[in-house]
Each structure stands twice: as structure tokens, then as C-alpha cells.
Amino acid sequence: MTHRYLLLLALPLLLAGCAQDEIEPAAADGGIIFNIGFTGQSTQTRITTDGDFRSSWQEGDEVGVFATVHGQPLAASGNSIQNVRLTFDENGWVQQTPLYWPQDGTRFDFYAYYPYNEGVTDPTDIAFAVKLDQSGANYSASDLMTARTADRGRGEQVVLSFSHALGAVDGFGQSRLARYIRRGGR
Fold first, then answer.
1. Stated pTM of the model
2. Would you say residue 164 lies in a domain?
3. Does residue 3 fall inside a structural domain?
């Protein structure tokens, strides 16, 4: 009888665990696996911003990634990984250039930004301008976001939780902005 009660108590936990996004294990071939989302939200989502100012990724979104040897500062050039493009599609994040962990066990600190800019050569001096026309694709292109994670190594996923680098102002009235503030940014 006690076993039935334990099973009934554990069932909601098991079901809730299945509802979460599945996280891939680290690549067996030593490839670097990225798990990308937003600060305060689950990962593996999509990039638009809804009426409550929650962001999500859309197919075709691109982020740029840099990495340094753990504990070394991000440099203007010569980083271990230098502005590698990751593109979001229906299968998740695709690396344009496959990335692999070094065989010697070196650990890395990762830095990422959105939206991706192929012309970025110096991650310490990225030029960014907000579009005056905020309609359509210009809205997302004006949403500068950054992420950082430290001390990652072979066999571990690189979890990047993006946060907005710029403030948002809702031009559609105080009611939605007030609701956003009351919800604590959710």
C-alpha cells in the first residue's frame, strides 16, 4: 500500500520532467554542444518578443560566439574561437563551422552576442546601432543581447543564457509596461 502512495506522489514529478525541453548529451566525437536560451526563461525557445516582453528564437536567427582559454580575458583578436556563427533552425542550433573540444582538456570561457555580424573581428569593440524603423525584421535586428558562461570543458554542454543589453520602451501605452513591471519582467 505504501508503494502505491509513493508512486502516486512521484507521478506528477515524472510527468513534469518529461514536459521539459530535452537536453542533448555532450557529443561523443568531442564536438561542442550549445544549449541557448534567455535569462529567466527555459532554453531552446524562439526570437520574437511577445506583448509581455518575453523573447523567443525564430528559425534563421543567428548568434556569434567567441571563446577564450578559461581565465584569460576576451581579446581584440586571437581568441580560441573567433566569431563563429550559430544558426537556429527546426532542429536547434547549427554550427556553420563545427567546433570541437581540444584533446588536452583545456577549458574555455564562452561569450556570445545577437544579432550576428559577420564583419565583427574585434569582440571588445562591437559597433551596434538601433534601427530607427522598428517594424518587421528591424525590431529583432535592434535587440542587442549577450551571454557568457565560464569554465566549460570536454563532455559538458555550453549553456548560454542571453539577456537584453538595451532597455525596452513600450510605445503602445502605460498599461502593458505597467503589467510587465508588476510581473517582475515576465
1. 0.69
2. yes
3. no
